C-alpha cells in the first residue's frame, strides 16, 4: 500500500513558535502579527491538508484565527498538550488526567473540556490530549510503583471515558498522544504515563470496546525512538492509530538543549531519526493499511529559519513515502495463493480435456483472435515461461519451484488474466495448458484472456542445465518455423549462449549458432518475427552463469544482429547491465529486456526495466519471466502490470507500482468475477 494519498499536516505552533523562535506559541501567548502572517502563509501552502493548532489566550486573536480558518480549505486539529504541560496556574497535579487525586483529575478533565470548546471555534475535527506525568516516575521500580502505575491507568481510563462522551457529543475525535516515558539524563522529558505504546493501546481498546469509536492514538517517530520502540509498536497500535507525526529527536551525543521531547530539526548532530528510519516506519504504516494524516512536528530554535526547517522535514517525509521499499510493501497477511487462483479441481480438468479432446488445443489456437499488428505502439511486454523445458526449475532456495505445474500455470494465467501484458512466450506444453485453461474460463465465465495476446513459441531447449554439452542447444519444443506457423502462433524465440573467453564446448556453441541462424531464416521466409536471446556466459562450479560485462553483451548483440539473410523481423532479448546505454547503441534492432533469476525483490526488476528503457530508442520493452512469476509473496499480476505501465505508458516505477497494486484485490479467482 502506498502512503501518497494520506493527508499531510503541520503542527503549526511548533513550526512557528514566535518571533526569534522564542516559545510563545506553546504558552498560548504569541505576537498576533507574527502568528497571523505565518498562519496566512501556511493556509496558502498546498502541501498541507491539515493545520494543527493549540490554545490562544487572546479572545480577539482567536476570532481572527477562526475567521481565517473557516475561509480556507484546510482541516483543523487542536492540541491540548502544550496547555497541559505548561500548567500555568499550577492548580493541577502534573499527573493531569491520570492523577490519583480525584479533585486534580476532575480539574484536568474540566480544562480539556474548555479547550474542546476553543477547538470547536476553529472548526477542529480532532483534539489531542496527553496522559499526564506518570505518578510513579522517578521512583524505584518495585511492587509499590507497579501498584501506583496500575491505579494511574485506571484513573486515566476514567478521565478518557468522560472526555470520550463529550467528544462524541461535539463530533470530535479524541486522540491520545503517546509521549516519552522519561529518562534520568538531562533534557526536556515529559515522563508520560502513556509512554509505552502498549499502555495506550490497552486504554483505547478498552474504550472502543465500550462503544467510544471516536477515540484513538497518535504516534510520532521521535517519541518511538526516545522510548526505544519502533515499527513493531506501530503494528501493535495499528487498529487504533489516528495520526502519525514525522519528528526528530537527539540522543546522548546531541546538544543538551535539544535532548528529550524538543522536536529538533532533522539533521542536527546526534539525530536519532534518519531517512532510513522513516522508510522503515513508513513501510509498517503501509503494511497495516494506515490511511490517516501524516504530520510534521519540528521546532526551530535560535537563528534557524522556520520555513526551511519545515521544508526539510517535508522533503524527508515525501522521500520516505515514495521510497520503493514503502511503495512495494505488502499489506500484513497478504500473499498470493496460487492454489486459490487455480484450484485443484480446475487443474484436473486440463488433463481431462487432454484425454477426451486431444484435438481441442489445435482448434482453439486456429480460431483464436489475433492482433493485426505485433506491437501497435512499437512496444511489447511478454511473459516468459520456457525454463522448465531446459531443466531450470529453481527459484531461490526452492529447487523445483517451477516444476510444480499447478503453481506455475496459476501464476502464468494470473498475469494473462489480470494484467494488460501483451502476451506469452513459452514451450508447447505450457502454451497448450494455457489454451485449455482459457477454454475452461470461456466456457464458464464468457471471458477470453487470450484474445489479442501475442503467443511466441520457444524453440531450442536441449541445452539442459548442468549437462556436459549444455552449449549444444538444438530445437526440441517447436522444431521448425513451419510448426510455429501451423499452430497459429505469432513468432518464435531462440536462445544462443557462448563463453566469450573460450572453453572446450565452443564447437557446440558454434553449431547452435548455425542452427539458430537457419531458424531465423525460416521464420523470415514465413513472415514471422523471431526473438533471439544472445547471452554471453561464464562457466562456474555450479554451471553457466550470465556474463553481465557490457563489452561481452555488446559482442553478443553484434553476433545475433547478423543472423540469417534478413534482419527485418528480428527482435533481440538481452539482459540489463551497467553502462547499458552503450549496449543499446550496439544495434538498431528492437530490443526487449530480460529479467534473469528471481531475486525476491521484484520492484528492483521494475526499476531496472525503467532504467533500461531510457538507454535508447531501440529499447522497446521486456520479455521477462521468473522475476514476475515468482515475485516473493506479491501477486505476479501486480509486477506484470507495473512493468506494462513502465513500458507502454512510461510511468515511473513508483507511479506504476502504486497503480498496479490495485490488482491485488481484483479477479482473485480464475473462474471468479
Quick rundown:
With 673 residues, the protein is of the alpha/beta class.
Topology, pairings included?
Elements: E1 8-11, H1 12-15, H2 32-44, E2 50-54, H3 59-71, E3 75-79, H4 81-86, H5 102-121, E4 124-130, H6 143-169, E5 173-177, H7 197-209, E6 215-220, H8 221-226, H9 231-237, E7 241-246, H10 275-287, E8 294-296, H11 306-321, H12 324-327, H13 338-341, H14 344-356, H15 360-367, E9 380-385, H16 405-418, E10 423-426, H17 428-445, E11 454-458, H18 481-486, E12 491-498, H19 506-525, E13 530-540, E14 543-546, H20 550-561, E15 570-575, H21 580-584, E16 591-594, H22 602-613, E17 619-624, H23 626-629, H24 636-648, H25 653-660
Low-confidence stretches: none
Shape: elongated
Number of domains: 2
The number of helical runs is 25
Portion in beta strands: 5-15%
Assign the CATH topology of the largest domain: TIM Barrel
What is the CATH domain class of the largest domain? Answer: Alpha Beta
State the major sheet.
8 strands, parallel, barrel
Distance between the termini: 23 Å
CATH architecture assignment name of the largest domain: Alpha-Beta Barrel
Mean pLDDT reading? 95
Rg, Å, rounded: 32 Å
* Helix fraction bin: 40-55%
In spatial order, strands of the major sheet run 1-2-3-4-5-6-7-8
Structural class: alpha/beta
CATH superfamily of the largest domain: Aldolase class I
Amino acid at each position: 500500500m502506498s502512503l501518497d494519498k494520506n493527508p499531510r499536516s503541520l503542527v503549526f505552533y511548533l513550526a512557528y513558535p514566535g518571533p526569534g523562535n522564542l516559545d510563545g506559541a506553546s504558552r498560548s501567548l504569541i505576537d498576533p502579527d507574527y502568528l497571523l502572517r505565518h498562519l496566512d502563509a501556511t493556509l496558502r501552502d498546498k502541501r498541507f491538508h491539515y493545520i494543527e493548532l493549540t490554545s490562544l489566550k487572546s479572545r480577539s486573536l482567536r476570532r481572527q484565527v477562526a475567521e481565517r480558518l473557516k475561509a480556507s480549505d484546510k482541516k483543523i486539529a487542536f492540541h491540548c498538550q502544550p496547555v497541559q504541560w505548561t500548567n500555568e496556574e499550577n492548580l493541577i497535579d502534573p499527573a493531569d488526567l491520570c492523577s490519583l487525586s480525584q479533585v486534580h483529575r476532575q480539574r484536568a478533565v474540566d480544562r480539556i473540556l474548555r479547550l474542546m470548546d476553543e477547538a470547536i471555534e476553529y472548526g477542529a475535527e480532532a483534539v489531542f490530549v496527553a496522559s499526564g506525568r506518570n505518578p510513579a516516575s522517578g521512583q524505584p521500580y518495585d511492587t509499590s510503583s507497579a501498584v501506583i502505575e496500575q491505579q494511574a491507568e485506571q484513573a486515566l481510563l476514567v478521565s478518557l471515558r468522560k472526555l470520550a462522551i463529550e467528544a462524541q457529543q461535539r463530533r470530535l475525535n479524541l486522540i491520545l498522544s503517546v509521549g516519552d516515558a522519561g529518562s534520568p539524563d538531562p533534557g526536556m522529558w515529559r515522563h508520560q504515563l502513556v509512554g509505552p505504546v502498549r499502555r495506550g493501546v490497552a486504554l483505547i481498546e478498552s474504550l472502543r470496546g465500550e462503544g467510544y469509536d471516536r477515540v484513538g492514538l497518535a504516534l510520532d517517530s521521535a517519541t518511538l525512538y526516545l522510548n526505544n520502540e519502533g515499527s513493531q509498536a506501530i503494528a501493535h497500535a495499528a487498529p487504533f492509530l489516528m495520526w502519525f507525526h514525522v519528528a526528530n529527536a537527539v540522543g546522548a551525543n546531541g546538544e543538551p538543549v535539544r535532548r528529550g521531547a524538543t522536536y529538533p530539526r532533522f539533521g542536527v548532530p546526534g539525530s536519532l531519526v534518519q531517512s532510513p528510519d522513516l522508510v522503515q516506519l513508513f513501510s509498517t504504516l503501509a503494511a497495516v493499511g494506515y490511511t490517516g494524516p501524516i504530520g510534521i512536528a519540528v521546532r526551530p530554535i535560535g537563528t534557524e529559519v522556520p520555513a526551511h526547517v519545515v521544508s526539510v522535514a517535508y522533503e524527508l517525509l515525501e522521500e520516505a513515502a515514495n521510497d520503493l521499499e514503502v511503495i512495494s510493501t505488502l499489506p500484513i497477511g497478504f500473499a498470493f495463493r496460487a492454489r486459490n487462483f487455480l484450484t485443484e479441481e480446475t487443474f484436473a480438468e486440463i488433463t481431462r480435456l487432454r484425454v477426451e479432446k486431444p484435438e481441442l488445443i489445435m482448434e482453439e489456437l486456429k480460431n483464436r483472435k489475433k492482433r493485426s499488428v505485433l506491437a501497435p505502439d512499437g512496444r511489447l511486454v511478454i511473459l516468459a515461461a520456457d525454463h522448465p523445458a531446459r531443466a531450470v526449475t529453481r527459484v531461490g532456495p526452492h529447487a523445483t519451484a517451477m516444476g510444480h505445474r499447478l503453481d506455475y500455470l496459476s501464476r502464468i494465467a494470473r498475469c494473462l488474466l489480470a494484467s494488460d501484458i501483451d502476451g506469452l512466450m513459452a514451450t508447447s506444453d505450457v502454451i497448450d495448458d494455457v489454451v485449455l485453461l482459457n477454454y475452461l474460463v470461456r466456457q464458464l465465465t464468457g471471458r477470453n484472456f487470450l484474445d489479442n495476446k501475442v503467443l511466441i513459441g520457444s524453440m531450442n531447449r536441449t541445452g539442459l542445465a548442468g549437462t556436459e554439452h549444455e552449449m549444444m542447444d538444438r530445437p526440441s519444443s517447436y522444431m521448425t518455423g513451419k510448426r510455429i506457423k501451423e499452430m497459429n502462433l505469432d513468432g518464435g524465440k531462440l536462445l544462443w549462449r557462448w563463453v566469450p573467453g573460450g572453453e572446450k564446448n565452443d564447437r557446440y556453441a558454434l553449431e547452435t549458432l548455425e542452427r539458430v541462424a537457419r531458424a531465423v531464416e525460416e521464420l523470415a521466409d514465413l513472415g514471422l518475427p523471431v526473438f533471439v536471446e544472445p547471452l554471453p556466459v561464464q562457466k562456474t562450479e555450479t554451471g553457466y552463469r550470465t556474463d553481465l560485462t557490457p563489452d561481452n553483451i555488446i559482442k553478443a548483440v553484434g553476433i545475433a544482429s547478423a543472423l540469417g539473410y534478413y534482419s527485418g523481423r528480428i527482435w533481440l532479448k538481452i539482459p540489463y547491465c551497467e553502462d547499458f546505454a552503450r549496449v543499446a547503441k550496439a544495434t538498431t534492432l528492437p530490443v526487449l529486456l530480460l529479467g534473469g533469476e528471481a531475486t525476491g525483490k521484484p520492484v528492483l526488476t521494475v526499476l531496472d526495466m525503467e532504467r533500461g528503457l531510457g538507454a535508447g530508442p531501440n529499447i522497446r520493452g521486456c520479455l521477462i519471466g521468473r522475476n514476475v512469476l515468482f515475485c516473493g509473496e506479491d501477486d505476479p499480476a501486480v509486477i506484470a502490470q507495473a512493468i506494462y505501465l513502465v513500458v507502454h505508458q512510461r510511468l515511473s516505477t513508483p507511479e506504476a507500482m502504486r497503480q498496479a497494486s490495485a490488482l491485488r484485490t481484483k479477479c482473485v479467482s480464475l473462474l471468479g468475477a
